[in-house]
Amino acid sequence: MNPERQADYDVIAVGAGFAGLALIHYAREAGLSIRVFDKGSDIGGTWNWNRYPGAASDSECYYYCLAFSKELLQDWSWSVRYPGWEENLRYMHFVADRCEMWPQIQLNTKIARADFQEDTGLWRIQTEGGEQFTCRYFVSAMGMISEPVIPGVKGMDTFKGPLFHSARWPAGGLDYAGKRVGIIGTGATTVQMLPELARSAASVTVFQRTANFVMPAVQKPMTPEWEREIKAHYDEIIAKCRNHVFGMAFDSPVGRNIADTPPDEVQRILEEHWPRGSFRFCFETFDDLLTNAESNRIVGEFVIRKMLENVRDPDVREMLTPRGYPFFAKRPPLDHGYFEAFNRDNVTLVDIGTREPLVEITETGIRTTKQHFEFDIIVLATGFQAYTGAQEALPIRGRNGLLLKDKWREVSASIMGVFVAEFPNLFMITGPQAPFANLPTSIEQNTIYIVDCIKKMEAEGHDLCEPKRDAEEAWVAHTADIHRQTLMAQGDKVHSWMMGANLEDRKPRVLIYFGGANAYYDKLRESADAGFPEVEFARLAG
Ligand code: NAP
Description:
It contains 17 helices and 20 strands. By secondary structure, it is α/β, with parallel strands linked by helices. Helix 1 (18-29) packs parallel to helix 15 and helix 15 packs parallel to helix 17 (517-529). The longest helix has 22 residues, at 439-460. It starts with 8 loop residues before the first strand and ends with a strand. NADP nicotinamide-adenine-dinucleotide phosphate binds at residues 56-58, 145, 151, 184-190, 192, 209-210, 331, 352, 358, 381-384, 495, 497, 502.
């Protein structure tokens, strides 16, 4: 090989969460050298950053894990249905330890830029500390929901106490007992955080712009019997995830629609499933909740009635009632005691959507159009720039120095969320226009696909993998076409991150492939089996 094309590593990836760990496994198995960088001081990705009280997975533990090793699946034991961030982090250490992944991981290293080199076909990666590395294949493993959104609220830097985004909860912990806490935002993060904070804070005041549909989580301990049952059926569980529309081990589709079921029977089935908890309520009741507007309206009314039935104050109930958008146009959080928390004397809900908009943050608190609230701590639970944020925050330059962020100004285009035209040898794990699904399932399917592509290149002696522009246009059009047919397309009415409609500086867009995660995984397989027709393989001259 031309010495100019000698790279420090075959593969460099950014992000040492589930995606980074999965990639280490599959890349090493393929005989590739790999280095994974992470700016964090620990592995774990989401679970390293999101250390707020109550942070836990919303997928059930036994399929919220990597499936590449049957031994690991058998040897790890979860303590509860939805593990908290500490347990998830421990699990990821278990994977890294058992698979001896640490030599491939470099922590505390922020990547400052990544540039495709036209002459050598390599990627040059530069760290903030000034180190430079080259690789043949560059992989974004930075996570789908990782780049925080900091709202442009006036006066934010004047507040005297701790003020931070929920995904930057102080790593050493924060003593909030007896303190007055203000939270801006009422998404999945606040739904998890509020009950925990309210237990010991002097007061918690929640500033809500849009009310959410929320389903019960129903946390429970992992019993020895349940664990035995899971471990005896792991192959089936993993197969279920691979074949499910959201990558989860659910028994659906169920073969019935609300539209074809007598109303009494609909209510009976919804009542029966509600206490079971989890996203199963969406998938194991009826098959038309997310596609048929009338069915969605019926289930939406049911959810509102059930979720609010224990909220005592009628005015608070009124404020917590979602209006004007379909169920799931915003990603519904799972409830671990959120609504009951509003019955506490130390919890206040403030409607900044219609009643008293937020004006500014002051030295001592938050001012709305009607009053001033005094706080010791302010948490911005204001969400993330999903799907594109991490890749845009890191300057990634492809052919002719094109910045990925510039390419995505209008449309966050990709081929299956993995390839981007004009960015040769760049791969994304769960990039824009991939499905929204149980993440470990999607991550692993993406990783297998990426490594298969690299294996082909290595075996056949290709230097470049050039995603085809027409394949990208076709995927963008296909994804947009499916998106248009779903009720999730109404997310732009309510700032849904699923359409990037939560960002102040850009237009809503199609970010998610809603054709079903299982259909998407099939497409990945078909593409690999057909020799990756979406990309052109080439050799560099000379
Ligand atoms: P989110 O769902 O995007 O919620 C952000 C909240 O901040 C919304 O209530 C939003 O109000 C509010 N907000 C944003 N900017 C604002 C502004 N300028 N003024 C007032 N309010 C503002 O974010 P999240 O709760 O962090 O959750 C994001 C996603 O992360 C979840 O949907 C989920 O997929 C993932 N997540 C998962 C878990 C889990 O699985 N365990 C836990 C947490 C998060 P509007 O609604 O009016 O925009």
